[in-house]
Task: inverse folding
């Protein structure tokens, strides 16, 4: 078969298949163009999830008639002034988006440059360009995409429902809005405004915090810690949630490289590694992390949709990210999510019985049902005067066995977690602080204390190793064996000794003693090799050891159901105040919650 050149319209449709696979991809490309044009307000209007209409308006620099005509040609761009594909300072630079969209839809563009008095319009229907003409338009650009994929009907079968396509577009807008908080974004769907984010004011960090709170919710703004680190020209900033604020998936983890939203497995792995021993497996923190570095240190041209990047020194990025996250976790590790106390108060309010007594002027408290039936006066016969009631019953009050040896009311309470006052249900310590009330889960709190002690013992010296009676022989490729040998020092530090056994296998000579004899050695080695291949680290072994220490801490801590005296409870509180990450147990659950006095007084109508 002879080799032939494909027609332009078919070339554009092939490019559209790589770049524009669904409406959200078209929105992403067009919004990025608007940002590159210097827009401060971007409005997106959709119909049927973007399948029938995508309308994007911006107040950017606009285009002249000549620029408008060039913009719809393949590989025409203003983003590469020096033809350097490495030194990229813009979001869109391929020059494929507009011609690709025009080849599979009905595309109309109106634009007016700030330097010109007249606006121009151009249309492309199914890859066929129509004549450009003058039009009426304000400064900026409006792009209208109708009937996406009408020129390639087979692609329509792969689109999801309008609701799903709209959800994908909203996710793109939100991620882009997080990266550029100084720009206003408005998203409408089928005539209803779904998202309206005004430009944030102040410095960049303040802008990001306000924008993240607007998108991720007030809980994230109140229960996250800031990150600010720099090393060798690489800047890392952003916010990450406390372990007690988590989700079941990692879809709320947002990563940005030089302002570009990306989905990078290595970066997500860094987040998982940083939260390894403070969050239970299967739970994920909420994060928004911004990495800024020289364009020469990152390749953003490895994917047609520019959603993936490749770092020149991935290990350097990984080390900076994990260290910064762990530092932030240590600084905020003694704090629990403020939403927990709010939820507790919400439960109290919702559980209030409508039939509980209430006061009626100076009369005694009466049931609400009597008051509604105008029987308040008759109900007085059922009540004994308050003073008499107290005198008759106060002698019958006996001190609780659980309150024995508790400190006097006047004891010092100006500790962060206050002074213990009682223990209820043999598991929860009630402490009084200057700000209000603290409720401590004694088992979860002591579990964290024991775990930190065991972890510190492991990390301050070599892990004790136990030799195997018969070495475990494991078949591996020569490249995998080389990876293990490169990380042999790290493996030895954690008590795992492996030697090459011929050209295609290894012999495991000893294992960490704490792992015992029931561990699946072959599976562990395979997992370590896979992780080294993907992330260039041997974190799998460390994670396995931490999981064992966590189990040991759980079994070695104060159990639920044990009664504690005042001295024991206060000792536990003081140790919590001195221990890192004491605000949550090894599984990410809170160890205590605080109830502010002002909220308690509101609950009882005192404020």
Result:
């Amino acid at each position: 078969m002879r080799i032939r050149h494909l027609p332009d319209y078919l070339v554009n449709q092939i490019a559209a298949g790589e770049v524009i696979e669904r409406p959200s991809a078209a929105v992403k490309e067009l919004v990025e163009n608007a940002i590159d044009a210097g827009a401060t307000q971007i409005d997106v209007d959709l119909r049927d999830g973007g399948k029938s209409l995508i309308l994007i308006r911006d107040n950017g620099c606009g285009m002249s008639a000549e620029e408008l005509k060039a913009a719809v040609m393949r590989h025409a761009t203003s983003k590469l002034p020096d033809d350097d594909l490495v030194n990229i300072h813009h979001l869109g630079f391929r020059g494929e988006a507009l011609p690709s969209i025009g080849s599979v839809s009905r595309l109309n563009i109106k634009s007016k440059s700030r330097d010109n008095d007249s606006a121009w319009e151009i249309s492309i229907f199914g890859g066929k360009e129509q004549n450009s003409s003058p039009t009426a338009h304000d400064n900026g650009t409006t792009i209208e995409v109708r009937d996406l994929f009408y020129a390639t009907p087979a692609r329509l079968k792969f689109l999801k429902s309008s609701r799903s396509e709209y959800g994908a577009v909203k996710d793109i807008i939100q991620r882009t809005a997080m990266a550029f908080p100084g720009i206003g974004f408005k998203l409408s769907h089928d005539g209803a405004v779904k998202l309206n984010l005004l430009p944030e004011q102040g410095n960049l960090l303040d802008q990001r915090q306000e924008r993240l709170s607007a998108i991720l919710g007030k809980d994230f703004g109140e229960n996250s810690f800031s990150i600010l680190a720099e090393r060798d020209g690489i800047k890392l900033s952003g916010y990450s949630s406390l372990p007690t604020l988590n989700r079941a998936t990692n879809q709320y983890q947002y990563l940005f490289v030089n302002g570009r939203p990306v989905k990078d497995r290595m970066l997500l792995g860094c987040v998982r590694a940083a939260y390894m021993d403070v969050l239970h497996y299967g739970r994920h923190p909420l994060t928004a992390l911004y990495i800024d570095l020289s364009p020469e240190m990152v390749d953003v041209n490895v994917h047609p949709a520019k959603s993936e990047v490749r770092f020149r020194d991935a290990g350097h990025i990984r080390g900076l990210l994990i260290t910064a996250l762990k530092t932030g976790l240590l600084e905020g590790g003694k704090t629990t999510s403020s939403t927990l106390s709010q939820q507790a108060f919400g439960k109290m309010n919702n559980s209030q019985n409508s039939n509980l007594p209430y006061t009626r002027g100076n009369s005694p408290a009466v049931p609400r049902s009597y008051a509604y039936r105008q029987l308040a006066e008759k109900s007085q016969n059922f009540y004994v005067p308050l003073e008499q009631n107290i005198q008759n019953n106060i002698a019958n009050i006996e001190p609780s066995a659980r309150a024995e040896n508790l400190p006097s009311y006047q004891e010092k309470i100006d500790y962060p977690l206050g002074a213990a006052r009682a223990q209820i249900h043999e598991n929860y310590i009630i402490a009084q602080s200057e700000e209000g009330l603290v409720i401590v889960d004694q088992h979860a709190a002591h579990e964290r204390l024991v775990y930190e002690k065991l972890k510190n013992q492991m990390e301050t010296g070599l892990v004790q190793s136990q030799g195997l009676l018969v070495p475990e022989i494991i078949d591996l490729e020569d490249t995998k064996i080389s990876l293990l040998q490169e990380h042999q020092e790290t493996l030895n530090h954690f008590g795992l000794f492996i030697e090459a056994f011929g050209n295609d296998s290894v012999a495991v000579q000893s294992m960490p003693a704490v792992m015992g004899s029931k561990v699946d050695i072959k599976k562990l080695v395979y997992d370590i090799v896979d992780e080294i291949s993907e992330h260039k680290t041997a974190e799998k072994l460390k994670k396995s050891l931490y999981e064992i220490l966590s189990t040991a801490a759980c079994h070695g801590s104060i159990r639920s159901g044990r009664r504690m005296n005042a001295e024991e409870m206060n000792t536990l509180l003081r140790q919590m105040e001195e221990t890192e990450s004491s605000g949550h147990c090894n599984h990410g659950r809170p160890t205590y919650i605080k109830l502010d006095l002002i909220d308690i007084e509101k609950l009882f109508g005192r404020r």
Summary: Residues 334-394 form one domain.
